Structure formats: structure tokens, C-alpha cells
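Write out a record, fold above all:
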Amino acid sequence: MNLVSKGLFDNSRILSSHNGLVLSKFMKSWQHPHKDDPVVHAIYEIRHTENSLDSYLEYREQVLYSSPSFFFDVEDMLFHGTTRSCLLVEDDFRTCCCGNEDCSLCEIVESSFDIAHSGRFGAGVYTTSCSSKADDYVHNEADDAVFNVMLVCRVVSGRRFYPFVNMRELAEPPPGFHSQVQGDPDHHRGLNYPETVVYDNDAIRPAYLIVYEN
């Protein structure tokens, strides 16, 4: 996926109505009772080139029209936490990616996601509707980092499969389901908060960065 090389982000902070919706979703989905409420300092929108977005939109259309009885939303806005090795969007609100291969955040911003990383539901990209759960995976490796940075992603959810057990062998969703496996505490006792897994790189795009502290 190609991103705009200059002006990679729109730094609207929290002033626009769209960013206000992102902020509201982030705060309302902060559910862990032992975590203090976060303080949000900025929200950045990630700008994609037309080509980088086309494959995502084409995939979404395929899922949308894959069933004549498709009565559920195919797209979600979900959270993803990862490791940041630099001071992206922190050092004077710097918006240039560092190019460090160990910086997962910059890798995702520049190249989107890679399904090759596995987890309890197989090789895929993991997100969650619970921002405080994604916070568990937000890590800073720079000693002088002050803030945390979390990704908000556009995810083609499609028809969701709810596994009752861990299924690491999955490389694609079961037949009849659309590019996603979602663990849910009502269905899977190994999870306290929901996780959503997609198995196609075109099923997800990073959309926003939330800069916060807690």
C-alpha cells in the first residue's frame, strides 16, 4: 500500500466533527475497570493515495454483494495496538515515519498490515472494538516517549464466525463467512473482550492515529 510521502497525516487534532466521532468511540469503548480514563491529545487522519484505497474498496464491494441476504454491516472501525520505536506524532508532532524495521507502527502506516503474524485464531490481523484492550498492545521503545499511540482501522468484517475454542490452524475464515473471525466473550470463554481477525490484507486499512496518555 502506498501512502502520501509528504503530508502523510491530516493533523486536525480533535476539532473536526469526524475526529470527534473517533474520539467518542475511543472513550466509550475504554472498558477495563482497572485502567484510568485516557487523556487524548491529538487525532491524526492517515491519508491514502487513490490506488492504495482502491483495493480495499474493491474487497469491501465483493463482500457486500457476495450474498443476496446481507443484512448486517460489512465494515467496522476497530482498534489496534502495536509497538512504536520512534517519536512519530510526538516530537513536535512529527509526521514522518522513521523507516526503522523494528517500528511496527511506522511499518503499518507506510505499508498497511500483513496477515503473516499469527495468534490464537490463526494467521491474520487482529483488532478489537475495545480500545482499552488494544491499549494492552501499545508499547513505546523510545526512552523519551511520553504519549501512547493507537491505530483506528477500517475493517471489512463481513459475516462473522464466532469460535468456541482457539483455532490457530485457520488461514482463512470457514466456508460461508466473510474474511473475518471474531472471538467474543459470550461465545468464547478464553476472551474477556472481543477480538476481530481478518485473513486478507485488503480487508483492513489504518485510518487514524490517536495520541493519548493514561
User: Anything to note?
Assistant: The longest strand covers residues 204-213. Confidence is low (pLDDT under 50) at residues 1-8. The chain has one domain: 9-213. The chain is about 20% helix and 25% strand.
